[in-house]
Amino acid sequence: MPDPAYRVARDVARRLLEQYELKPPFDVAKLAARFAVVLEDEIPTRADVIAVHAATPGAKPRIVLDSSLVHSDDRRRFALAHALGHVLLGWHPLGEPCDVSHAPQELPVAVHDLIEGEANAFARELLTPTSWIAGFNAFERPAELMRHVSERAGVPLMAAARAVTLQLDPGHVWMVADQWGHVLDSGRSPGTSVKVPSAGAEFDGRSYARHATERQRVDLEGCQLTVWHFNAAAAEQLPRDRTAREMARLIGDDLGLDAAAGSELVARVDGIAGWANEQLGTASMIGMAHLLGERARSLPELADAATHPRFGELLNAKATELVTKRIAR
Hints:
By secondary structure, this protein is α+β, with helices and mostly antiparallel strands. It has helices at 7-20, 28-32, 73-88, 111-127, 130-134, 142-153, 157-165, 206-211, 232-235, 244-254, 259-279, 285-297, 303-306, 311-328, and strands spanning 37-41, 49-52, 62-66, 172-177, 183-188, 214-220, 223-229. It folds into three domains: 7-127, no CATH class; 131-235, no CATH class; 244-328, no CATH class. Strands 5-4-7-6 form a four-stranded antiparallel sheet, covered by helices on one side. β4 and β5 form a beta hairpin.
């Protein structure tokens, strides 16, 4: 099931693969050298790579890889493809240090996350093309497929997991954890509402194990990858993301609103969202939620709803929906 998020970035990567007739694994450094001067140096901040403007007018932009990446070929390849994305996606500002081990949220909370998310999506499609992954015809064994893609394409396991996940049926959740059980990254297939494990936290998987219809696990380079599958009934038993309409109805029920009044609350929130979408030309989820909140609290007819303890969840849900549409354009 294709995911529309970052569609333009993925399309640029696909066109590049077609133009140069590339199939994984290919020499990404050679490709990057067509568009930029590739250098290695010690980057003073905690970063893997930085793309910067040309040193002189008419020259190529520069991609500077941190010299420490010589010890991690898969991370170096991904960092180079990520930086090439910044160079080729012409609306990206250059000069920002990038740490590719830190995954920006798939739904960005800031414009920086949107830019980094696009560069990551470009890199994944370039190094692990959608059509190439589909050719393995092994989606019934997603954990093994993720490991195989990582090894064959020479990319970090987390990048491979995200690439494979885009083609899985709804109901799949994955997690990469270190040897101490701390979550390094996680994600879910399109159409899945189950909340994923939080990065950086220790994960207690008992509820997942109790409700999962299937679980697969593989190890690679000191990390453990786990993939769960939940059917619709099982997903209802786990914490999940609720839509803005669901949250509005929950708040309406708590306030004792009848069906008509509850529908009016939903309609008013949708109306405010339309106004906010026109006012805010950014893909910042924080900015969108803030604007929605300011507008909602200024309307007397929403005074009761705006003081409800879960009103913030309603705003975040609506902001997520609006930002998702922006990313898909």
